[in-house]
Amino acid sequence: MQKTILLNTLLGSLLLATAPAMATGFVNLRPAGSTIPGGISAYASCNLTGNFGSNPNGSTPPTFSPNGGGNNICAIPKATPPLAGYGLTANTVRNIVMNNAYTLKQPITVGTVTDRVWRNGTNCIYAAKIRMNNVDYDRRPVSPGVQYFEMNDFLRAGFKNRGPVAIAYHFTTTGGGASDDVLYRAGLTFTSVVHKPGDKARPLTSVAPLSQNWVNFTTDVNFHDDDGSSVRDSSWLLVKSTCTTAAPTALSGALRLRQMGQEEQPLIEIKMDGYAPAGAGTAR
Fold first, then answer.
1. Other CB atoms within 10 A of residue 87 CB
2. CA 47 from chain center: how many Å?
3. pLDDT at residue 11 above 60?
4. Whole-angstrom Cα distance, residue 71 to residue 181?
5. Which of 139-153, 165-179, 224-238 is predicted most confidently?
6. pTM, 2 dp
7. Does 281 fall in a domain?
8. Do 272 and 253 form a contact (C-beta atoms < 8 A)?
9. What secondary structure letter does DSSP report for 222?
10. pLDDT, tens only, 59-73
11. Is 284 inside any structural domain?
């Protein structure tokens, strides 16, 4: 037991020494990643309470006072606007529509994404807030009960040559005692990596290759989660980058929502249109 505690302490110290500088608010994502034991990580850690959503007691929300608060790495205290000097230039609510073998090739709306852009000159903040619906996506006769879509990872494209790219999240209380889920980590990668309950793997995994075009947010949003940590709303997930003064337009396939099988569910990806910098693409 003492050896295990010592090893975990040493590993934690190494992570703190090699990970990006931790700070409240927007955190820059390193284009070359961060050196960690075992390789290079595309990720920066944010709020790791709640064991990536597998703890039935949920995560600890960020606070900003007294004495500086806590659990607020990558978190910002404001949402509208997210930073002084930025003005809202685009705002659309998009349906999250699943249409695959599980839905028997019928379109089923499993949630919504509120997609926004704020601008300050040639700098933009791209924001998304996800809400899951009370709906069964698996309509196959062999699948009894209700299967709710669980979003473990949210991805946004369009940031190649738009550096520096920074990420943040804003946690809000949505009313009725329900609150958003926190952001566990975010990185410049197209590859999502599941973090299962009890997993001792490093949160700054080296498994996901770097991508300069995609930002991947790891969270855990589900109308009714099998592990007991039911949170149907994400926080505002924010990406800050350079942009042009052109009016924001939607890019086909710029948003991806992924169910990664944290509770052994099937791996499912939903592609959606989303705002992106002018001239951006979805290449990996």
1. 9
2. 11
3. no
4. 13
5. 139-153
6. 0.89
7. no
8. yes
9. B
10. 889 998 888 789 999
11. no
Q: Render the burial of 45-61: b for 16+ CB within 10 Å, e for the rest.
A: bbbbbbbbbbbeebbeb
CB 134 within 8 A of CB 40: no
Q: In the chain, count of helices (H) and strands (E)?
A: 1, 16
Contacts of 148 (CB under 8 A, 6+ apart): 110, 132, 134, 135, 136, 137, 222, 223, 224, 225
Q: How many structural domains are present in the chain?
A: 1
CA distance linking residue 136 with residue 149, whole number of Å: 8
Both tokens of residue 211?
A: 């991508």
Print the domain residue range for 202: 2-276
pLDDT digits (tens, 9 = 90+) for 27-67: 999 999 999 888 999 999 999 998 888 888 888 899 988 88
Residue 90 lies in a domain: yes
In a domain, 282, yes or no: no
**Which residues lie closer than 8 Å to 28 by C-beta, 6 or more apart?**
20, 164, 165, 166
Q: State mean pLDDT over 134-161.
A: 94
Tokens coding 118: 């704020």
- SS3 state of residue 236: strand
Model confidence over 75-127: pLDDT tens digits? 998 777 789 999 999 999 999 999 999 999 999 999 999 999 999 999 999 99
Per-residue three-class SS string for 132-157: ECCCCCCCCCCCCCCCCCCEEEEEEE
pLDDT attached to residue 263 = 79
Q: How many Cα neighbours within 13 Å face the side chain of 200? A: 6
